[in-house]
Write a structure and sequence with these properties.
The protein has 210 residues and is α/β, with parallel strands linked by helices. The chain is 38% helix and 16% strand. The chain has helices at 20-29, 44-61, 91-98, 111-119, 144-157, 175-179, 190-193, 198-209, and strands at 8-11, 34-37, 64-68, 81-84, 103-108, 124-127, 164-166, 185-188. It has an eight-stranded parallel β-barrel, surrounded by five helices.
Length: 210
């Protein structure tokens, strides 16, 4: 089942400036059509309280709601999909567990990982880190523009059609060279939700990607 995948993925995060709900409201009012709720600090009751409020906002604005991990919440709220951060996740089993209608995204920091994710049936993949990021620190080598170009060439050579989303420290000035590599889209968090004017930052990202 082919899923709708937006080119700009906005990822909420635990920040003191705005709650996850506030981030969602601002992003959606700026035109967001894809919202990834990433919260790894709350219990299930608190998560569902957030998710139910966020789902209402997304529904009002026609945005897709993706939740990072927490697949045990499937069916307990109006969630369209899940983004799985475990690099070793088995997407064949996840698809069996979640069903065909649920959008499933994966994370990879290697080209081999992208190939595996595609062959196991994920709907899209976040590929990073592009650059140094404090949102989701990790020790993986930075991919850079050249790395994305190589990845897309490899996937094309194997006739793999996987929407690849660049993630990790992407700024406004990086969008044009990244999109020129053939990737599908961009994921952004801090560059938008920690900007002085979050609404304007989202709009600038959207305009440059589209």
């Amino acid at each position: 089942m082919k899923k709708f995948i937006e080119k700009l993925h906005f990822i909420t995060h635990d920040i003191h400036q705005h709650s996850h709900i506030e981030q969602t409201s601002i992003a959606c009012s700026a035109g967001a059509k894809w919202l990834q709720y990433r919260c790894l600090t709350k219990n299930d009751e608190e998560l569902l309280e957030d998710i139910n409020a966020i789902a209402e906002i997304c529904d009002d604005w026609g945005a897709t709601l993706i939740v990072t991990d927490h697949i045990h919440l499937n069916g307990k709220a109006d969630i369209q999909g899940f983004h799985i951060e475990d690099m070793d996740a088995d997407f064949v089993k996840l698809r069996q567990q979640l069903g065909e209608a649920v959008t499933i995204g994966g994370s990879s920091n290697t080209i081999d990982g992208l190939v595996r994710i595609a062959k196991e049936g994920a709907d899209y993949a976040g590929f990073g880190p592009f650059y140094t990021t404090t949102t989701k620190p990790n020790d993986a080598p930075l991919i850079g523009v050249e790395g994305y170009a190589k990845a897309m060439q490899t996937l094309k050579a194997q006739s793999i059609n996987l929407p690849v989303i660049a993630v990790g420290g992407v700024t406004l000035s990086d969008i044009d060279p990244l999109m020129a590599t053939g990737i599908f889209g961009i994921a952004a968090s801090a560059a938008i939700n920690q900007a002085d004017d979050m609404r304007a930052a989202y709009s600038a990202f959207y305009d440059n990607i589209m």
